[in-house]
Write a structure and sequence with these properties.
By secondary structure, this protein is an alpha+beta fold. The protein has helices at residues 3-19, 61-74, 98-102, 125-130, 149-163, 167-179, 226-236, 246-253, 320-331; strands at residues 24-31, 34-42, 55-56, 196-198, 205-207, 223-224, 257-258, 266-268, 273-277, 280-289, 292-299, 304-310, 354-358, 361-367, 373-377, 385-389, 395-397, 406-411, 417-422, 425-428. A hairpin with a 5-residue loop joins β14 (361-367) and β15 (373-377). α1 (3-19) packs antiparallel against α9 (320-331), α2 (61-74) crosses α5 and α2 (61-74) crosses α6.
Length: 449
């Protein structure tokens, strides 16, 4: 990294730590599968924090619970459409689906009944479930977004029941050990930061409690380090080491609920928090517990991620992570790889390329370097998708409007392509060509009545 980039990043971190009056602050950037920068300000004890210093990461814990649920789904142990009663019966949300719990759209209260759960010792799963009665439901419409810590406490119990062990043990065996995340733990292990509250009107500190949240621990219990969170960012990007299929992680990153109404700058996928910023689509999660703040966000399209951790209850602005990404992009924009011709593309596909018409609307079909087909409108916006070959002459859409839809190639008696049948929509070589089976018939151009 260029010295000017490092200085700009460090200055942004230093401003945040001083103006926010943060006891200690550490941040890191990941690009192309490796950590390219770590910066720190402030002190933990008598020294600056390092990338091995533990901080409590709060609601980032929820992303681990979501991965455990998705592993169960991929194993066939549950379906995301299953109702909670199918696995954890006896609550007032028994008719809610697993998907609704993962996307915070179940209508369940944000916090559990009882004292302030983040600051008091937690109870058992049975005690938590017994409080989820009609009073724990929030007003309709049920399908709208409403963040629920309780929902992830319930999902932790679901994992425990299906695995026959605690969610924490399942997480350790199924996620942390395979990924080498040995510094992510339920309780702090040295070296770790202490959590502090900073007085709003004076530069003095007060220690914050760090209780075991019990059945609510799946909502925010974990401690971790910048090194481990950098590995977790790579996981969110699809470097899963077999813990999940990358396609399942991509499914988790797809929007399921919108957090901020019409503008849609934030929302949730399946356990992952989503943001849109300056053309980026970011996936990860924020986290807060008494004495601690943390954020980890990944941009899969750019293979770039950011994490920060702080030991303060308040004082770090939400813009810090986004600003660090922007600084990196401004000072060290990517230099594209040189274009090179390919010799491993099926040349028989060339006869499919070029212009095709959906009625009077021109589209262009081209072969991508990885052998996929790419169908896009010739000008302006419209339905665009990539297609993967199935090995039998048909293709399946990967994204956009035609995701999962079949594409078949129509040919004449000589084998020459005459039309594309895209899930019943017919594309022809010329607008409404006679050579394609266009429903409703084709009378020809120039008819005036």
């Amino acid at each position: 990294m260029l010295p000017t980039t490092e200085r700009a990043l460090l200055r942004r971190l230093a401003v945040e730590q001083r103006e926010g009056r943060v006891p200690s602050l550490i941040a890191g950037l990941v690009r192309d599968g490796r950590t390219i920068w770590v910066g720190t300000r402030g002190r933990v004890g008598d020294a600056a924090p390092t990338s091995n210093t533990q901080y409590r990461v709060g609601s980032i814990t929820k992303t681990f619970i979501a991965v455990l649920v998705m592993r169960l789904r991929d194993e066939g142990r549950l379906d995301l459409a299953d109702k909670l009663d199918d696995h954890v019966p006896g609550t007032s949300i028994g008719n809610r689906s697993i998907t609704e719990l993962l996307t915070h759209s179940s209508g369940l209260t944000a916090e559990p009944d009882g004292p302030w759960w983040e600051r008091t010792p937690g109870g058992s799963a049975e005690e938590l479930l017994s409080t989820i009665d009609d009073d724990a439901l929030r007003p309709a419409p049920r399908h709208t977004f409403h963040y629920s810590n309780v929902g992830f406490g319930v999902l932790g119990e679901l994992v425990a029941r299906l695995r026959g062990t605690s969610w924490a043990e399942a997480m350790r065996a199924e996620i942390l050990e395979p990924l080498g995340m040995n510094r992510t733990t339920l309780a702090p292990e040295a070296p770790h930061a202490k959590g502090w509250a900073v007085h709003p009107w004076a530069d003095v500190l007060m220690p914050e409690p760090a209780e075991d949240a019990g059945a609510m621990a799946p909502a925010g219990q974990l401690w971790s380090t910048v090194d481990d969170m950098a590995r977790w960012l790579r996981f969110v990007n699809g470097d899963t080491a077999g813990v999940l299929h990358p396609d399942t992680v991509a499914e988790m990153r797809a929007p399921g609920a919108v957090d901020d109404g019409n503008e849609w700058r934030g929302g949730f996928g399946l356990g992952l928090q989503l943001f849109r910023h300056s053309g980026r689509r970011l996936a990860g999660h924020t986290g807060s517990m008494p004495g601690f703040l943390a954020t980890m966000l990944m941009d899969p399209a750019d293979n770039t991620g950011v994490v920060f951790m702080a030991n303060t209850t308040a004082g770090v602005g939400s813009a810090l992570a986004l600003d660090l990404l922007d600084i990196l992009d401004h000072h060290e924009p990517r230099i594209p790889d040189p274009w090179e011709p390919r010799s491993d593309i099926d040349l028989d596909l060339l006869e499919l390329t070029g212009q095709w018409y959906w009625g009077p609307s021109p589209h262009v079909l081209r072969v991508l370097p990885d052998g996929l087909l790419d169908l896009v409108p010739w000008q302006g916006k419209g339905r665009a998708s990539r297609f993967r070959p199935n090995g039998d002459g048909t293709w399946t859409g990967l994204d956009g409007y035609y995701a999962g839809e079949p594409l078949r190639i129509g040919r004449d008696e000589n084998g020459t392509p005459t039309h594309l049948d895209l899930n019943t929509f017919i594309f022809t070589r010329t607008p409404y060509s006679h050579d394609g089976p266009v429903p409703g018939g084709v009378e020809g151009w120039g008819v005036v009545e």
